[in-house]
Request: fold
Amino acid sequence: MRVIDYFDKGAKIDPHRAAIIAGDLSYTYQEVQELTQRIAAGMYAGGFETGHKVAVYSNNHPLALLCMLGLWRAGGVWIPTNVRNALANNIEYLNFVGAQWLFYHSEFIDNVTEMCDAVPTLKHLVCIDREALDSASLDALIIQGKDVDIPDWGDPYGNPEQIMALWPTGGTTGRSKAVLMDNRSWAATTEISARHWYCDDPPPVCLMVAPITHAAGGIAVMMSNLGATNVIMPGFDPLAVMQHIEKYRVTHLFLPPTAYYAMLAHPQVRDYDYSSLRYFMVSSAPVAADKLKEGLAIFGPCLCQSFGQAESPVILTWQDPATIAAAARGVHPERLHSCGRETYPVQVAIMDEKGTLLAPGERGEIVARGSLVTPGYYNNPEATEEIRRYGWHHTGDIGYQDEHGYFYVVDRKKDMIITGGFNVYSVEVETAILAIPAVKECAVIGVPDDKWGEAIKALVVLREEASLEEAEIIAWCRNKIAAVKSPKTVEFRSEIARTPTGKTDKKALRAPYWAGQERAVH
Reply:
């Protein structure tokens, strides 16, 4: 089915239940249906055509989520646009995919002005909270569509091959790749989540902390299929999260490990009632086993994990709360390091470099097949072919499967660092540092860190007689690239290890920092 069909199924559970709560603002499922119908109608009145590419650029505001649901009701393709990204990265991506519509919050008017100048395909601008620039306001768009009918663009099969999003993979050696997400793969993700995240006692309430115009928005839509109330926070603050859990009787919470660790470390973490929590999913990067044990003592038997990526979203494997709680008690304690077992619409296996599937315990690349796997990359057949070798989808992650079917991620094949739940490609950081005149060579790696999981570390060789301080390099990076991509530490060296072919030997560079670790990721 289509994305919006799952929202409408959730609305049937109780049309008068709150669908969205954000501070003093609240919308019932019936109100959201009516408003998104009017948004979609306004888009058609303004020249929208099925398949147009639509970005939403906003802080965590309920109107941003309404616009996302409205674009899907119209039949648009969502372009996730994270306000935390560097403006240049967002502009590059909007140009690459050819975005035609932009819904934005007035807080970002200056950025939007630059976007309009730099992205010629942007022809339709809508400010969601007021009149601004030369764009229509959301209120005006809704009025514009008053007498316009939304065409029925559905088909008997739920439009399985229609693209519903072009998901950016993050900074790479060139432009970010765009993952084609179609209705088939998103439907599989939604139905898997409904199976594994279901609860009705108490009624589901999902706390949205991360940017809703990026990954959190997708989670909100999946939770809407369960008739959940989505409570939107402006951003992450550990104390505010604790207070919201108690106040709204939150049942579902999704955080990256760094945010989870910040909650564990907060002096007031034991002062609140978490008894409503059913699924506290700490995901987007592996979690330290001792941190899971600590969380169980505080939050109760609700911690869970999954493994996925943009190309096979969210829940390729699933580790349920009962399994984690049992492992903490000593029943298969090794499973505290696992990301769980494959979910029902996919096959997950371990493969060597020659395409041979490996036996339990043998390490290789994690590969997958099934309806969760997305079609490939937008306008990039070479990259698509690369991840489809030997008839399987290649995740780029290295791991193994035990004799009971549990998967363990132990390393990454791709030169990528996951820090605080964000994917950072080292070459982008290296490029920024190498632009400093005093720098001769640079290699960027991820090293173990209790807060970030992995912290970005820059190894730098200076030019002869040049002088540079660690703080100067970090400040330079913060100015040139997003703060999350900037190194946390810098180490100056006389040379950088290389392979026999002359390439930087990242494996050798990482080895001293990961010595004694059970796995080469956190």
